[in-house]
Amino acid sequence: MTSSHITIIGGGISGLATAWWLKKKGLSVTLFEQDAEVGGTMKTVRKDGWLIETGPNSALETTPLFKTLFADLGIENELVYANPAGKNRYILRNGTLHPLPMSPGKFLKSKLWSLPAKLRLLKEPFVGRAQREESIAEFVVRRLGREFLDYAINPFVAGIFAGSPEKLSVRAAFPKLYALEEKYGGLIRGQIKGARERKKRREVAKDRAQMFSFKNGMQTFPCALSRALGDAVRTSCAVERIGYNENEKSYTVQYSMDGAGRAHETNAIIFAVPASAAGRFVASFDDSLANIIQDIYYPPVTEVFVGYKKEQVKQTMDGFGFLIPEKEKRKILGAIWSSTLFEDRAPEGSVAITAFVGGSRQPENALKNDNELLSMVRDELQELMQINGGPVFTSITRWEKAIPQYHLGHLQIVEQMSKFEAEHPGLFLSGNYRGGISVSDCITQSEKVSDHVTKYLESQKIS
Ligand SMILES: Cc1cc2nc3c(=O)[nH]c(=O)nc-3n(C[C@H](O)[C@H](O)[C@H](O)COP(=O)(O)OP(=O)(O)OC[C@H]3O[C@@H](n4cnc5c(N)ncnc54)[C@H](O)[C@@H]3O)c2cc1C
């Protein structure tokens, strides 16, 4: 039987980054990943001159931890920042793509919202604090009015969580937005005062943070972490069960490799897997928490990547892409203009577009067959971007369970996870179902969890 101080289950970005922080501290780590490749949802495919992201297309540099990691891994030269035009985003209203205004002057002229909706913003600083947990929809309607929910927040929630604003908890899913009210009494006031405090903490607000990827796509990052971790990473190893050894106060990780069952002895385990898998492991220790974690909803999302010859597309692709409010009743959630955002995503003379289908809004659409999906995306893009003819290249990535939804009550689930960790010393729950879904949230959380694990091992005098 092999052994290590710490075992991490899951070789997505959360597990890999946690493993790296721990290895840097000189601790012995083993990471098990069931797939043959690391990266989890963060994978990249290159084919015939096209670069296809299967999951995240970019990340936001909101934390200085990224720079530390890229320097540790020696991949600073691989890093690419998004085209400055990527700051432009479009939102569909009445069938037309409208630029999201980036200055007060443009906001006043914008046709995205009516005059009464704009005037309603003047009331925002005088709206009181919430008296109970609210959904993001309730929060926005109360502070900004219905039209901002429909034509700003609804499409963004679809773009970030592929989720429903009526169900997502503002406090759990958008903690920084919630904090503006909680801490400063309002969004406008908070924006101004919060900027000063972020500067002190060396943090960058999401709207100011630089968007990045790598020359060869997002999977560069997990692959570099895996290389740096060396033989600590064991791919094609699916963990099946966890057992506790009362006498040694240690855990046994049962996993399968090449069809054979094996065991690994460890002092601490981090479950950096999707919630359904984490729930299965937790079930050996706490049935009720296992059920709660397994119930966290992950809607299906399908990414449909399409390539066209430049001359086929009439729409000027001068931005990140566009998002579609539910009220517009379209069949896709939005699309990223991948070849505008980063160079070398499409062959010379071509453009690449990544459309998103499904989410909580229309889960049934994500599950359609390839032909139905392609014709749905082709028709929608043809109309919205005035495209002539069909795509010259297509690629479909399906996520049956894409992104965990932090619905109302999610923070109570997180509290129960903390209680579980206190009652089962040495077991840690981490990953995008707990501390935020974005890549930057996963990195911030990975460092925090590595600190908790280190403190735990120190308290047990294990080093
Ligand atoms: C379609 C899509 C688009 C996204 N776009 C963006 C974006 O543009 N920007 C952004 O910041 N974020 C984006 N996200 C979110 C972000 O990519 C994810 O939240 C993040 O990558 C999750 O990382 P993770 O390591 O927590 O989980 P995962 O990537 O899910 O990794 C978990 C790993 O655990 C492994 N595993 C599961 N069970 C076992 C087992 N029994 N034994 C061993 N291994 C196991 C899995 O194979 C997997 O590799 C997107 C997500 C999706 C799905």
Largest sheet: 7 strands, mixed
Structural class: alpha/beta
Question: Can you say what the CATH homologous superfamily of the largest domain is?
Answer: FAD/NAD(P)-binding domain
Overall average residue pLDDT: 95
Global morphology:
globular
Please count the helical segments. Answer: 17
Work out the radius of gyration.
23 Å
Query: Could you name the CATH topology of the largest domain?
Result: FAD/NAD(P)-binding domain
Terminus-to-terminus distance? 20 Å
CATH architecture of the largest domain: 3-Layer(bba) Sandwich
What is the CATH domain class of the largest domain? Alpha Beta
Question: Which residues sit in consecutive blocks of at least 5 with pLDDT less than 50?
Answer: none
How many strand segments? 19
Query: Roughly what fraction of the amino acids lie in strands?
Result: 15-25%
Into how many domains do the coordinates divide? Answer: 3
Question: What compounds are bound to the protein?
Answer: flavin-adenine dinucleotide
How helical, in percent, are the residues? 25-40%
